[in-house]
Structure formats: structure tokens, C-alpha cells
Specification:
This protein is an alpha+beta fold and 252 residues long. It contains 6 helices and 14 strands. The chain binds thymidine-5'-phosphate. Thymidine-5'-phosphate binds next to strand 9, helix 2, strand 12 and strand 14.
Length: 252
Amino acid sequence: MSQGNMIYEGKAKILFEGPEDGTIIQYFKDDATAYNAQKKDSISQKGVLNNQISEHLLLALGEIGIPHHFIKRLSLREQLVQKVEIVPIEVIVRNVAAGSVCSRIGIEEGTKLPAPLIEFCLKDDALGDPVVAREHITLLDIADDEELDEILYLTNRINDFLCGLFRAIGVRLIDFKLEFGRLDGDDSYEIILADEISPDNCRLWDVKTNEKMDKDRFRRDLGGLIEAYSEIAKRLGISIELEDDSTSGDAS
Ligand code: TMP
């Protein structure tokens, strides 16, 4: 269990102070929310699966030179990461139309997009995380042009790499969400990938059947979420360790 003080509790994770300065511990909960937390549940083992899948994906991205916050996994639900100042925007990448973009611009689910579509959303629950233009982000002083160029460069590289990685295991990467942070250096700082990459924040469809293998199983009451996340882990070659039934997903 985590030792440091709690810094922040989000919908699916809790952040604790890490053992050394400049580190934090991400604790993955089993809580699932959708539609700005109007729909809520707890799905046993979800956090355990996301912790290990995200570890695998961030390490793979690190191998191709994508800077990220992951340091090491500490336990079934905890990982040690570098402390960053989160840039409060969600970067959404879409290869195929699904989810909110379908109703927003009138496009049918499953339509392959001619090129990846990158959207920015403000991380602001009170405003409902609205989609914003790059100009809104600079106007609000959330990030400057240089930072946004770096975020777009990293996002495109991440998408190229992950599309190939998932395609190789028979999965279509439909869309996903990224978050970035500023990592302090001696007299400068670097933009690095933060948060998590897991079936909670990606849409993943089986190549042959188009079966949904992601959080849409919860959003759309399809059932079988743990089976789908476990199948993603299995295809990625992760030998997933699960918690025994007597251990709860509570961080208390
Ligand atoms: P959307 O279709 O609801 O806009 O979501 C697009 C993708 O981004 C989908 O894979 C889910 C992910 N996402 C998050 O992980 N968190 C969020 O807050 C939002 C809006 C999307």
C-alpha cells in the first residue's frame, strides 16, 4: 500500500507523494465512470489490468524515444512516475470515427478517416471537457505554440507506433486520449507523455470481427469488460497477474 500523502483523487486513479522528490505514485482503482461521471460502477480487477497494460505500452514507446513519466511498477495497482506539471488539455487522436465525434460532426461510426484527426479538449469537468481549437489554448495561456508543436509531433509519432503495435496483434486502434506534462530540468523543461494508455482511454476493435475490446463495453452496457481487457493484455504478450479475491481495489 502507498506510504506518501494523497495528492489528488481522480475518477480512475489516486496520486500519492512518491518516496523521492520529483516522484509520485499512481494507484489504479477499479472505478469506472462515463458521460462526465453520470454513469459509475466498480469493476473488479480493472485497475490491475490497466496498470500492467499501461506499463507495457509506455515502456514500448520509451524504446522508440518517446519521453514519458513511467519509472517502474511497484505493485499490482501502483506505479512510480515522474512528477510533472500536467498540461490541462486532453489530446484525442482518431483514426476511425467513433464516440463523440460521430454526433458532433455527423459522421457514421466506423468511417475510416482519411488522415488521423487530432482534437484538443479542455480538462475541465465543470465545462464538460469541451473540444477547443489550438487558438483557444494559446488565448487561455494553457500552453504556448512551441509546446503545442511538440505535443502534436509526439502525438503523431505515438499514433504511428501504436497503430502498428496493435495491428500486429489483430486490433484496430480506433481512437485514444493522451495527456502531457512539463518535466522540470536544471534550467529548462521538457514536454513528456503522462497519465496512462490503457483500454480505459483507447477504443480498440478486433480486426476480424470489429468487436469492442475497450471501455465502450462499460459505456454501452455490453458486459465482458474484464474479459476484453484481459484479451488485450494476452495479445500484447503480458502475463497478467491478478489480485486474489480477498484484496479489494480500495487504496485506503
Ligand atoms: P470520445 O469519443 O468520448 O470523445 O472519446 C475519444 C477517445 O478518447 C476514447 O478512446 C475515449 C478517450 N477519452 C478519455 O479517455 N477521456 C476523456 O475524458 C475523453 C473525452 C475521451
